[in-house]
User: What shape does this take?
Amino acid sequence: MDLPGALDGVAVVELASEEGAFAGKLLAELGADVVLVEPPGGHPCRRYGPFLDDLPGDESSLWWWHAQRSKRSVVLDLDSPDGLGQLRRLVAAADVVLEAEPPGSLRRRAAGYDDLGPGHRRLVWASLTPYGEEDRRSVEPWTDLTLLAAGGPVWNCGYDDHRLPPVRGGWSQAFHIAGIHTVLAVLTALVHRHRAGSGQRIEVNVAAAANVTTEIATMEWLVAGATVQRQTGRHASVNPTAPSQVEAADGRYVLLGFPPRAEEDYRALLQWMDELGLRDSFPDAALLQLGIERGGVAIVELGVDPVAREVFDAGRAAMAHIAAHLPAYEAFSGFQRRGIVCGIVDSPEEAFEDTHTRSRGFPVAVEHPELGRTIEYPGAPVRFGRSPWRVQRRAPLVDEHRQEVLDGEQPTGGDTKGAPP
Assistant: This one.
């Protein structure tokens, strides 16, 4: 698409960090010009594994490639007067500043929001901190894992077998969660600026952002003093729910989701069983027929009508019966074609190569001129009709864009319209 992105013309200065990287990438691929400010020698995240071809190096980190693509890089020494002066000039021309510096570190350099923000009334300044700018825990040791544990997601992620420990979501989940909240806040602040003419300060508490993504876990504890239980392949709940992840004939797993409820769902299950020759081996086929005759079942009936509950449970059992006799992908795609909710447990490689994923244009080819290679990346999670999400470029090399950023080609914010800071 040749249409501009939603943030086309918006200039962002991002102080490189693990915590803010995902937020910066989202802004860049919505169209913003994101200048990544790195310390001398490049940011330490450049040395995060895994690496291309398993060869460690500052320019081969796959973590860096994923988190920092679509940005430009400039190295500034913020402990030197020249570096601070260059940062101030970048901020003066920017619409948004994104930073996750240790609380107080920018203030000590006279380069924080209180120093640069008030004179730039249209500036949106977003800070990510572990527990909040003024909380003492933000200057204590912490990691993505400890923030996920403190926020709650680790509490309700895992398996029915509680002999196994809770499960931490991979790939910096706390920072991804906080990054999404940051982008939502920045977008809201830019809309406000467009209408009211003024920017504002945004502070994102990573642990708090993680806490509000625990579904009902936090609310159950605060309201009822109850603790949800971890469950395999389904939502954590105070009271255990029926298992929904089942093994298919090839040893892989499918997720049965929410059992069918509509008349046409029960008819489709019976017809498919007949095609597979499985009706006689399913003891509750009569209940599926009853589901057809009564026009399906409604959710409100399940707690008051025992027959409705039996029909409902028979639908899930029928799905499990079919899945047990088919390869996982055949079961998954067969349910999907019949309009019945079903998922499949894929490895990342399997998900990336899936025909549906590819037909939606999710894999994106990105040129790496320095390698003479084109490499496929995960692309946009959503598709917009009028403001496309676009991968701008591969992740920057160290200080790659210094000349164009500092020597006369600084990004100019689209909504600033040349107004003085």
Q: What stands out?
A: Residues 410-421 have pLDDT under 50 and may be disordered.
